[in-house]
Amino acid sequence: MSGQDPPQSPLQRKGSLGRTVRAVAWSLIGLRKGSEYQRDIEKLNPLHIIAVGLFAVFLLVIGLIALVKMVV
């Protein structure tokens, strides 16, 4: 054996919430290194990324609505 763990299915991966939030935040602003992207693909759960991404977009929309109401 080579000592490496067998690849996990995407839904069995356990990534930290902080790492998932950081990955989504960097992706939203478009600044992401290719090596970091590859590491996130290997470690993070896709369902967690989707959930955090939807929450981030929700916060963005609420923030824009609040900004427009303050300006008007």
From TrEMBL:
What keywords appear on the UniProt entry? Membrane, Transmembrane, Transmembrane helix
* Transmembrane segments annotated in the record for this chain: 47-68
Give the highest taxon in the source lineage.
Bacteria
Keyword flag Membrane: yes
Q: Does the keyword Transmembrane helix apply?
A: yes
* InterPro entries on file: DUF2970 (IPR021344)
Q: This protein is called what?
A: DUF2970 family protein
Q: Which organism is it from?
A: Extensimonas vulgaris
The organism that produces this protein has a lineage beginning with: Bacteria, Pseudomonadati, Pseudomonadota, Betaproteobacteria, Burkholderiales
